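Friendly challenge for the regulars: who can give me the structure tokens for this chain first? No prize, just bragging rights.
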Amino acid sequence: MSERFVPEELQRLSKGKIARLPPCVQLLQGNPLEVDAGQKVTHLFPVSEQFTNAVGSMQGGFITAAFDNVFGHLGYMISAGRQIATLDINTTFIRPVFPGDQLRITVHLKHCGKTVAYMEGEAVNSEGHTIACAQTHIIFLNE
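First reply, four minutes later:
Bragging rights claimed.
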């Protein structure tokens, strides 16, 4: 059974003070790069052969999962210790990305209310070309 991550551990991750990443981030081999005080988070994901579709590009579901990981990181930073859940996530795919490349995903907080927050993000390849954009709403639980 995998260990459960609690908000305090994810807050420490945001400050670079935790050695292990959540299993979903480990699977996609995500690596946090930048954190901006609850406003922006950037992660880097290698594009691996194991995440490709029939035409050899990274399958859209894995790109969306990578976005969800980064949205979750920012969500926990702004959660004030509450649990969070994704209400929806919408991904628009612009161009394919292939093994050997990297996805740099940056997400921004656009609105934070008492119970729901809205975020937007962009994934770019190693040349800076947009691969996909995504938006999500998260809900703060335990109120």
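The domain at 7-140 is CATH 3.10.129.10 (Thiol Ester Dehydrase; Chain A). Residues 79 and 87 are 15 Å apart (CA to CA). Your move, everyone else.
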